[in-house]
Amino acid sequence: MLSFFKNLWDSMDAEKQKRLLAEKLEEEQRHLDTEIEKEENEKIKKGENFNMQNVLRSINAPQNGTLSSNDADKCFQRLGVITSLKSNHGTIDHAIFFEIEAAGGLASELKVGCHVKYLAYQQVHSDHIKVVQINEVSELFWDESMPTTEKIEQQIAELRNEKPTFFNTHQRNILGLIMERKPSAIVVDTEHKLMNINLDTIEIDFIPQAGDRVYICCNVQSDEHFVNRQGEILQEVSVHPARLLKQEKCEVRRLNTDWGVLNNDCYFTLDVVPNACKLDVGDIVLADLIECERDPYIWRCVKLSLLERKSPQVTTPSKAGTTSSKAGTTSNGEIPSDMNSRKESNHAITVSDDARCIFSSTFQTKRIEMVIKNNIERNMRVLSIDFLGRRRDSQVKLVDPEHDNTAFEIPGHSSRALVFEVESKFYGESREFFVIKFEKFRVKRSISVVVCETEVEAEAALAQSNHSTINGLNGGVQNLRQRSRYYANQVWSNKGEVIPGVGLATKRRFLSLRIAYYEVPERLRNAYLTSTSRQEMIDSVENMFPCLKEELNIKNYTIRFQTLVFLEEIEYFVNFRNYDRERAHFTRDGEFLSLTIENLSERRPSLVIGDTVRAINPWSNDNDKRSYDGVIHKVLFNRILLKFNEGFQSKYNGEDFRLEFYYSRFSFRKQHFAVNRIIKHLGEPFLFPSRVHTREEPQLQIELNSDDNLMLQDKHYPWFNQMLNPIQKRAIRNILRGEAKNMPYVIFGPPGTGKTMTLVETMLQLIKLIPSSRLLIGTPSNGSADLIATRLIESKQLQPGDFVRLVSQNQIEKELVPEHLMPYCATVDMAADGTCDDSMIVTESGMKLRCQMKYLGRHRMTISTCTTLGNFLQMGFPTGHFTHVLIDESGQCTEPEVIVPLCLVSQTRGQVILAGDPHQLPAIVINRFATDRGLSISLLERILGRTPYLRDVMRFPDTSGFDPRLVTKLLYNYRSLPSILNVYSELFYDSELRPMVNEKSSREAEMLKKLDVLLPLSEKRPKSHGIFFYGTRSENKQESDSPSWFNPLEARNVFLMAIKLYRQGIQPENIGIITPYLKQVKHLRTLFIEADIAMPKIGSVEEFQGQERDIILISTVRSSHKFINSDLRHSLGFVQSAKRMNVAISRARYLMFIFGNPHLLYLDHCWRSCIKYCVDNEAYLGCDLPDDFDSRPELKKDETILDQDVSK
């Protein structure tokens, strides 16, 4: 019996094994079939293993009476033989691929070997033929057997001489409704058919969604049979909204978790809201709307910008007794039923007015009394005294009664005193509120604490009227500006003979290419400088150049940017007038004439070597009206050294001259040249991309293996930097492949994510894997260029001959070139080859000066600022000489600056990489008019607003919504503790940044623990919380001759915090102090200098971009509501300036203190979020908070809080 069961079990096991084996073989067979099918498809698409050229020649052969042309799209009908057939596709004549859908109802009749008549379409300059429709099927082989290869080839040969019939084509717009949005396609319902459109093959200028009404621009067949010019659809070219309303003024009516409503008939998804712009119901926005069908909405918003925010109610300290409230009413305004009468309610209790305590320094103590008076016969019971928003750093505490939750009674017609102890803990003004809770109502009071250097100053500040003299000061500044413009125009208009000075080097007469002068048009100059009002100036300029009122496009690109650069130069000229002297003299200094200029190092714009000083003698008695230019050869601490014409220099004997200062225009001229050249050089697909154009073959057939290592032709290539994270590696892989043709690649690098590290690795891999490559690396500043050069040296992969760092003579003379970079540095001599002697000089440090074309441009890498790289434009390098242009910190460059080096890259073989962060500070543009019209918007930011570069999470869910062929967003943050990172990640980067600094075991976490003694006590706050807000209510000031602001009390608080950090062993170099106003920078520096204490780095936000410190102290300065509307309009300081705020709060590694007035900053949503984050984590200290942040006790439905006495 046992053997029987054993045999039965073995037979069942054998059957099971056979079945499993069969299933496995079947699965392997299916896999092999799939792979073979893929290979066949690739062969078909690539034109392998068949004579495609024979087919093309038969189609393109000239025919009598046909419409064929080699320089136009072709639509034709011809006969062919089915040579292969799969479930969803097949081939005709071994050469032409078709989808089964093209056969329509004839699909079931298709067989290998049968004849078909098909309609096809071929675009000009393309070998690809698209089968649009199979119209007829004729079966030549009636038996069931497969026709032999010989018979099929015989039929193909016979039909080869059949001539196709050609048709005309035209474009037609077809209206439709998007029924479904797939990741890479849309399904559109039209009157003709349901169209499945691949987003990779069309141009589209918005991110489509289901429900959108669109029109599809198609190429269609046309001949005498199509009377209505409809014809067969050959190819979809582009998709556009059926209707588009631009810049519509709308009101936010509703907000949900991930969508909202405008004007009741338009909806929007939150992905169209700009980062750091958090909307509230009631806000006014400018929106681009497209027609849709999503009941009840008929419009969808595709682009949105905040125009006007529905501001929260501004809370300002009020004087006691100036307002009154009705007592005895419930929260809905009704009189409580159990109160004796309205009269008793209003006169039952009287409480002293709000109190103020004034201190002349910190750590002083005072006691004050507030009296509660019972005005009626019966006893009144006080249930408790509750402080609103009570914090651990409170400066007020109740002394009598000892416990604020102790109930007590006040007999009829008697009083009870409340005794408070007030201690001054920090400078500025704060206000603390408390509520006296009775049985049926509450009374609210406050105590203001003012801490200044003297009581007189504090009293004066509190007694100051609402009408400040600042309005007059601003008016004076405005009048001064207008006078400076009139003066600038007068200087510009002066004509006369000018004797040039002696330059730094001999001017080269022979250049391979000479850049024009591009003088500012006189009519533009006059309109800008002589208009009596800003509005008059705007109207005049826009009437002259209507393109400034239009959106930027390929047609107005050149004239618009040229005008904006001219306007920037005019403002630069106006600012340069600050150096002019009505009467001054020179002193001799060796071979130079010296001119003393006070505060030269702090003046802006800076004087540089090569600028000129024009000496004019209006008091001369002779008829010599000539002027003399002196060229600046050296810029010292408070004086400049000049060389004039030899005759003037030798005869000068201390006479007085009127002096006018002039800058070198070469930088502006290079920008004008580039703006004029770039359209022809790189074209519309580069400047205004509307779809992804791909190369026929990638730049390199490189991939990442399972270990994220580079593989090229089955060979492993190591990373030079082993610390790269997976996203950085993917970015470099995407750049090396270079699949997109003539389109910039963007490395989107938020703060602390290793953008420069990624760029350096990219450079090294490019020159290693592409031996023919020659790279230009451009930056907005010399500091950025020095950093890249330093990182390349530290990689130890390059030698001095492999790359060159181009520098200017100004850097050399000012000794700004780092010593370790000197062997790699060179200056340019732009003379054409063979037109002058080689005058290159090699210094002891290794720097090469006056290098000509035969030396420069031959290195594998050339690193410099964008404008300095523009010197190569005049040196005659052939097209394609430079293969790659990489721009670091490209968000800090204006578009004309960036395109200067881009004019040197090849359109066909070249590649452009833009690295930067569009959410950090833009380029510095001093002309406000030009800023408002887009000059400060970088090419990086503008390109990221074009459709192929837009974030589309549905289409690219694994790459932060960006097409990996065009953009990589870096996400790993190596700078900040998570508590600091969370703030700017949520506000500006869609909460995608990933902290790599451990909040428990990192160096940053350990350092923060050591400073715990300085931080406010809290049991709730996490130990690793590193961001604190120090509320200060104080006065911001402005001097009569300057529009800049400063805040003495806030500066003092910052100074004292720095002293506390010093006492804990923190070194000055580990601290950074950031403030948006230069006056505050100077005031803070003065405090450190007067105290004779080591000074940390103190500077504006611009000075800290790209830098980081262990500890950051931020002084926001503004504290007055009087000019908040102006600040909101013009994004002054930190108010309504998201990019400025982002840079400021993303510099700290483990600790950041923000000093500011919460009553002002909370009007801005970003700051409100930041303050709330600190409050929620018990990381707020300082003055009282606005009402929005009060954690007040809950009211019962029959109670109300009274702001004033119940007797009033």
UniProtKB/TrEMBL annotation:
Residue stretches of biased makeup (Low complexity): 318-331
Catalysed reactions listed for this entry: ATP + H2O = ADP + phosphate + H(+)
InterPro entries, per database record: DNA2/NAM7-like_C, DNA2/NAM7_AAA_11, MOV-10-like_beta-barrel, P-loop_NTPase, SF1_C_Upf1
Domain of life: Eukaryota
Domain Helicase MOV-10-like beta-barrel: 579-661
SUPFAM superfamilies per UniProt: P-loop containing nucleoside triphosphate hydrolases
Gene3D superfamilies in the cross-refs: P-loop containing nucleotide triphosphate hydrolases
EC number: 3.6.4.13
Stretches assigned to coiled coil: 11-42
GO molecular function: ATP binding; hydrolase activity; RNA helicase activity
Subcellular location: Cytoplasm
GO cellular component annotations of the record: cytoplasm
Family the UniProt entry places it in: Belongs to the DNA2/NAM7 helicase family. SDE3 subfamily.
Protein name: RNA helicase
